[in-house]
Amino acid sequence: MIENKLYYQDPYLKAFKASVIKQERDLGNNWYLVLSATAFYPTGGGQPCDLGTIDGQKVINVEEVDGEIRHYLVQPITESKSEVHGEIDWELRFDHMQQHAGQHILSAAFDHLFQYKTIGFHLGKEILTIDLDTNHITEEDAQKAEAAANEIIVENRPIHVKWVSEDELSTYSLRKETKVKADIRLVIIPDFDYNGCGGTHPNSTGQVQSIKILGWEKQKKKIRLQFVCGNRVSKQLGQKQKVMVELTKLLNSPEPEMETAVGRLLQQRRILEKTLEDAKERLLKYEARELLANKNANQVISELFENRTLQELQKLARDITTVNPDVMTLFVAVNEGQMQLVCARGSSRDEDMKAAITSANQLIDGKGGGSASFAQGGGKAIIPGEEMLAFLLKESGASHSVK
């Protein structure tokens, strides 16, 4: 069937004609077409499939299933047609060729320089990743590998494809073992990389144009490295330059001083956040004194709030009960369809705040916890706040006298 895979005969083929073998739906009720030959590369080996059209109908996916290449269509073509015209999305195809060949070059560079084997590869819409069989790389390692890879590109070495048997493999210094045992396809960059691969590649390294490493992260016991090749490099540069231009305007700082300007801005933000937090603390203490001054005869403070965080309610309740151990606080806050509850008592009282919260949570499908002296909860605001306050007054035994 290799002769029917036109993308292997000529990866630069943009259009073709072929006979219709069959057109039907798969188990998921999706239409697909099988042709006598195709230039559409199916998803495989870490490389996404080609897209395009067949007789004007969009090809949205291409997969090889049970030895046949299925072209999935938005709509079926006219059944009476025996021959169809296919056109691949060349911009997408060439992008995949650049990225896949670039991956070979960068992986080989890491292998040659540091013996870091590539054990995983993914070609995404925006970036590529390779998984290196090491748990650590340095900035210097990455720079050396990138420089070596780009040197191979500048040298514009040929990229050859050769079909070999398993017996012939021993004559090549393969970067990694091949998984297939028959119809083995080698992608060769002479005196640099010999690798079994079923993807599409340009005819020379120069067509990859350039490689740029974007970053890396540790994934368990390996390093996942992100990079781009070819036209994606200029696209990434354009995007980042646009951001930098906007930042220089916003920060009123030239690009070489951007890092210092951002650091200064972040420091100012931290100072402002601390100042704001201190101001909130003072306001809560003032609010606590006001509420204490207005407590009822039973030393109970019950309040309904709007748009107050649980943390603020907790702080307010602690401030009040610490200042006056004879006081009980029952707070309810309604925030955008949610209800927050805080019940607290001073050390001179004996009501069970946790029991009151547990009962209240049942009314609002809520959750919570705490102790007998201080508890909190929250759920959906499915009853009015005033009704919840009345319930807490009853359940907490707020009419109990002070010990």
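The record above closes out task 2.4. Task 2.5 opens with a second protein, given below.
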Amino acid sequence: MTAVERNAQRGPLRAARRVAGVRYAVRDVVVQAEKLRRAGRRTLNLNIGDPNPFGFAPPAHLIEATERAMRDNKNGYAPSEGIPDALAAIERDATRRGIKNICHTWIGSGCSEVIDMALTALADPGENFLVPSPGYPLYTALAAKLGIEARPYYLDESRGWQPDVASMRAACNEHTRAIVVINPNNPTGSVADVASLRAILDLAVEKDLVVFADEIYDRLLFDGCSTTPLGSLNPAASVLSLGGLSKNWLVPGFRIGWGIVSGERERLEPWLEAIRQLGRARLSANHPEQYGIQPCLEGSQEHLVHLMAALTARRDLAMQRLNAIEGISCVTPKGAFYAFASLHDVADDAHWCRELMEATGVVVVPGSGFGQKPGTSHFRIVLLPPLDVIEEACTAIANFARAGARR
């Protein structure tokens, strides 16, 4: 019997069970969209928060610093935690924004790796952490991979998607290790008020929890809105402040993110050393791109003025069009570049989004992929496409919704 015949008798190779629960709705819808494109269909992509395909470009000083580093042959491994100049710039920026008791800072291959390292170092199987619902699906995917539980707490749509701290408290138990706060929020575009942030930190101190402050969109704010870094509000709290180049400086492909841990250093040291161990094991984050961090944090921010002007026009058009559709309503985003629309008379938003794509080519992500209150349905759109694409997509959504209402 040949090796091929023996393998045929054995059947398919078994995959690891830990991957069975890993889902990532933002990318999962791409599979269906790609099938349409292969069939010759045109799609209108309002699903992935990548600004570059829509013509948004990073500031010149970021590109120049990275090119210079590459020409200077900064192309080998970086220090595990990141290059000193970048780390110092990150900490100076954090201090300017009111985060004083910094214990540890490190740079990862995107915020995703930083979150993965921090969570891997913190929680064991059988333990849990709290995630916002709606919230970014990376956290639930990591929970599935690590064998820990992601327990939802709900954002209140009637209050502009503010965190429901009572829901958060109810979700805690003796196995809870951390709370995730995404501010500005993906997918809703909401910005949490200071009173809610203080209440979250009070709960974290009471329950001895680490707060993951996911603030990757903290400079993308509409209408003069401002955010308050969670790490600046309570020196007794243990906070991991997450940032990066991807969104604010328009280079998601650089895969450069960072984490800043603040709190009581002596208490946090076992966790911090576990993070360092993981960092050493994976060698380093991307090296030459790290030389763009200091120019970004300490150089001109003029690109943000132009970016937010363009995004504001797109947001205003999307809100006008979506809120005019019977059966759909949408809270106006205050930050980031997403909107999370409510479907009033739809029981299964994943099915609705698939049907929308098949009928119109409009690609959006179902709200169930981000979490939502039971009995509700939503979809997320990205506000990055040009005005004419948003106009065409909203017209298609309106026609599809009217046809559904007539059925």
